[in-house]
Amino acid sequence: MYSTELKASAAPVLTEIRRALPDVQALVEAVVAEDDLLAVRIRYTGTHLGVLRGVAPTGRVLAWEAMTFRRFDNFGRVVERWIIGDDLSLLRQLDMI
Q1: Residues forming beta bridges with residue 69, ordered by sequence position
Q2: How does pLDDT run across 15-58, given as a tens digit for each residue?
Q3: How many CB atoms sit inside 10 A of residue 46's CB?
Q4: Are 48 and 24 in contact (CB under 8 A)?
Q5: pTM of the prediction?
Q6: In angstroms, what is the C-alpha Rg of the chain?
Q7: b/e per residue, 2-32, with b = 16+ CB within 10 A?
Q8: Is 76 helix (H, G, I), strand (E, B) or coil?
Q9: Would you say 32 and 42 are in contact if contact means Cβ atoms under 8 Å apart?
Q10: 72/70 Cα distance (integer angstroms)
Q11: How far apart are the first and last CA of the chain?
Q12: pLDDT of 4 above 90
């Protein structure tokens, strides 16, 4: 369960990804938990069929990895979230660099 603020901040990003990569899949590759923190390494893949970061569809299958970290309160709600994504790889696949 996420706080209202975290849900609101993630919604635009998730909407863009789902529109641009309608077949997007997320494969959890590793999970580590300690105390109130959870770390997850995820590999994403999807076919670029919609505008992503201003880039017209290419039809390419894109793949990138990300690490997410979440801190929970005593009620099990996510109160902090950090995401570190391999944006460089994604930008290269989109021919943006």
Answers
A1: 39, 82
A2: 888 999 999 999 999 999 999 999 999 999 999 999 998 999 99
A3: 20
A4: no
A5: 0.80
A6: 15
A7: eeeebeeeeeeeeeebeebbeeeeeeeeeee
A8: coil
A9: no
A10: 7
A11: 37
A12: no
Assess contact for 94 and 53: CB atoms under 8 A: yes
- Burial profile 66-90: b = 16 or more Cβ within 10 angstroms, e = fewer: beeebebeeeeeeeeeeeeeeeeeb
Interacting residues of 5 by C-beta distance below 8 A, sequence separation 6+: none
- Mean pLDDT across the chain, nearest whole number? 90
Find, among 12, 32, 29, the residue nearest to 86 by Cα.
29
Read off the pLDDT band of 71 (50, 70, 90): very high
Token duo for residue 46: 């999807």
Q: What is the percentage of the chain residues whose pLDDT exceeds 70?
A: 90
